[in-house]
Sequence to fold (236 residues):
Amino acid sequence: MTPGALPADYARVRRVGSFHELVTTPFAGGVNALCWQRSLTGDFAEVVGRLGAGEGIVTIDDARLLALPVSAAGRAAIAVLREDQRLLRERELDPVLNCIYGYARDEESGDAPTDVYSFHADSAPVAADTWLCTYHGPPSEGLRNEDARRRVDIAETRARLLQRFGGKDDDAFREYLQENCHDLHYAAVPGAQPFSFGVGNLWRIAVDYPDSPVPPCIHRAPATAPGQSPRLLLIS
Fold:
């Protein structure tokens, strides 16, 4: 499935025009994702190029950013990266800037993967949100809640997980599903059209927590091809 543009008619996603609006708009009335659409200045590709080769997920701190030998356009990009982190830290959040060369794949779970390439919801024991922005590389992808089914609610998948568990479909099995995050992963229904979070947009999305007023936003990391440029991702 190739993701399309951010849908203009999807009521669960609300566009906002500022960081203040992104912070202060409540999740209510079914809205579970807020998007501050932006056209950023600066050369983020240069920043990624100067970071060089790597593997897995590499966290980039301010000291490393400021030490990069970049052009004026690269410095403008670095200023954007630092300013976004400053804004989030002022909200007592803990943003992390990652250069992502690739995520680990769940090779053992068959049709019930629990890696970030699978559509999933974030979860927390208390009220919380996820913030994220892709500055370079393939952006995150979303899936309409109406186009998603929990994998554990698909009879064939549940039966295979139950067989792996080796017990009955009871409280112990449901606890097993939760402990292994199977209850947070989703499959797209036939004909579903994922949508792109876009490059440069700062998102605040709802997570799964007790008594949340809205369902969680379902999303995933984009598939990456060998030789593809790494992602530069801010997440909190």
